[in-house]
Amino acid sequence: MKRTLLSCLITAVAIVTLLFLALPVIAIFAHTTPAHLVDQLSNPVVRDAFVVSLKTSVIAQALIVLFGTPTAYLLATRRFPGHAVAVTLVELPLVLPPAVAGIALLAAFGRLGLLGSTLDALGITLPFTQTAVTIAVAYVASPLYVRQAIAAFEATDPNLTAASRTLGAGPTRTFFRVVLPLAQGGLIAGLALSFARGLGEFGATIMFAGSLQRVTQTLPLAIYAEFDQNFDATLAMSGVLVLISVALLLGLRIGLTWQRSPSKRSLYLFGPSASG
Amino acid sequence: MSRGRAISAVAALTIALSLVAGQASARSSAQITVYAAASLTDVFPKIDPAQKYQFGGSNTLAAQITQGAPADVFASANTTLPQQLFSKGLCSKPVVFTRNTLVVVVPKANPAGIRSVYNLAKPGVKLVVAGPGVPVGSYTLQILKNMNLSGSVLRNVVSRETDVREVLAKVALGEADAGFVYSTDAKTVAGKVTVVKVPAWAQPKVQYGICVVTKSGDKTDAQMFVKKVVSKRGQARMLQYGFLPRVKKKR
């Protein structure tokens, strides 16, 4: 009797929670007809914002992978003085309010910032450029990739790495043929989360890069700018972002389940990529 | 989970939910919520410190009121937006409560060497303006049109901000070379920016409109607030902050 009451209660709470989370997302699509939303996608503001978002996100994520992967590998495999500080530094943007991130980027890379005069001497001005958007996205989204990458590298079996080395593969070859394939699932998961977070970047971008159509106005900035002008356009852009996020998370779930099945896993270890 | 623990968990949940609900609806008596243009950020709390204020781009605030935001009074940096709300039955007939003028602000160091509005057409100048829907943004466009500078100056726009204070901040920080703001905004950061005047003949008609929101739960106090703003004392405060009398003096 007691048990059933409790389980009923838990179910009720769970339903309330799920409704609370689902309702805003449903509301975006319930506000207008799908045809109307699709119509808005040809609106130049929406199209331009989509292009700016995609371009800056792709470049930012490429940079995150290029710099984040070796950093994560180092932090996962070596212990050195200041290790905890380094990990904290990597994680900090995750908990920093975006507005603070924006101010911090201005204070560092702005015209009057710490590196401002150095950059100025090189003829580089960052604020109000697309590069500034990319920097803001990379700064804010990087922890999601790097944290996941550290965890993935830490989870790789050291015996397999050691075996590879004793079988004559050098450290570089071992990294690319053994460690990377083993960590692949975690790395892709981190990248997907980082991409989704970067696409939604708002606070740091508006402070550091400003907002100009075709140059620095990303989807979230366009949503904010169009809020009072064209509510339908903001709904359409919000719908696009929701769909991308859902697709990323869903893809991630499916991908991870596929990865976990042992028969597929062996493919990574002894398949053509590992033996070649 | 023991029954005692379950009960206390439910109790905690109930308390938390009721707190949220309370926050959403509770309004301490006589305190009203004023949605006001960003340029009024400094002066309104001086006219009446007891009220709650939400400052921002008038256009954003108007959109929020249209979407049902719990505002009692709407004070806009133009008369168009409150007039639009009035014609939709969302607020009372707006009255003009002050006027303003626009200036160009440049950082103290003035890296682009801006000395007149015409200098803004120089290639490479980083100009920040407010978005076209924001009142100060549309006033900016009017000035440039009046001075026949629309094409050449708008090419130099590097960012369209969401309200006048954002424009001011970007210039005061030294990130932008110049920006169009109200003369009253320029006064708030006098140590950081230099003012470049916009000629009187190019000035648009900048009138601020105020109205009581139809859905307000406390219309009496909302009307009291409007009265306070247009009262002699309220107007004296506005003048002290650099705003112009609500009625233009006849010469």
- Count every beta strand of chain A, where a strand is a DSSP E run of 2 or more residues: 0
How many separate domains of chain A?
A: 2
> Structural class given helices, strands, pairing of chain B?
alpha/beta
| CATH homologous superfamily classification of the largest domain in chain B | Periplasmic binding protein-like II
| Rg calc of chain B | 22 Å
Structural class of chain A: mainly alpha
CATH class of the largest domain in chain B: Alpha Beta
Topology:
The complex is a heterodimer of chains A (276) and B (251).
Chain A: H1 2-30, H2 34-40, H3 44-77, H4 83-95, H5 98-109, H6 116-121, H7 130-155, H8 158-166, H9 171-199, H10 203-208, H11 219-226, H12 231-260, H13 262-270, H14 272-275
Chain B: H1 3-25, E1 33-37, H2 44-47, E2 52-56, H3 58-66, E3 73-76, H4 80-87, E4 95-100, E5 102-107, E6 127-130, H5 135-146, H6 150-154, E7 157-161, H7 164-172, E8 178-182, H8 183-188, E9 193-197, E10 206-212, H9 219-230, H10 232-240
Parallel strand pairs in B: 1-2, 1-3, 6-7, 6-8
Antiparallel strand pairs in B: 3-10, 4-10, 5-8, 5-9
What does this structure look like?
- The complex is a heterodimer of chains A (276) and B (251).
- Chain A has 276 residues and is mostly helical.
- The longest helix of chain A is centred in the first third of the chain and has 34 residues, at 44-77.
- Chain A is built from 14 helices and no strands.
- Chain A has two domains: 1-30; 34-275, MetI-like fold.
- Chain A has helices at 2-30, 34-40, 44-77, 83-95, 98-109, 116-121, 130-155, 158-166, 171-199, 203-208, 219-226, 231-260, 262-270, 272-275.
- Mean pLDDT of chain A is 88; it is low at 263-276.
- Chain B is of the alpha/beta class and 251 residues long.
- Chain B folds into two domains: 29-99 and 207-240, Periplasmic binding protein-like II (D-Maltodextrin-Binding Protein, domain 2), CATH 3.40.190; 102-202, Periplasmic binding protein-like II (D-Maltodextrin-Binding Protein, domain 2), CATH 3.40.190.10.
- In chain B, the strands form two sheets. A five-stranded mixed β-sheet of chain B has the order 2-1-3-10-4, sandwiched between helices. A five-stranded mixed β-sheet of chain B has the order 7-6-8-5-9, sandwiched between helices.
- In chain B, helix 2 (44-47) links the parallel strand 1 (33-37) and strand 2 (52-56).
- Chain B is globular, with a radius of gyration of 22 Å.
- At the A-B interface, helix 1 of A face helix 1, helix 3 and strand 7 of B.
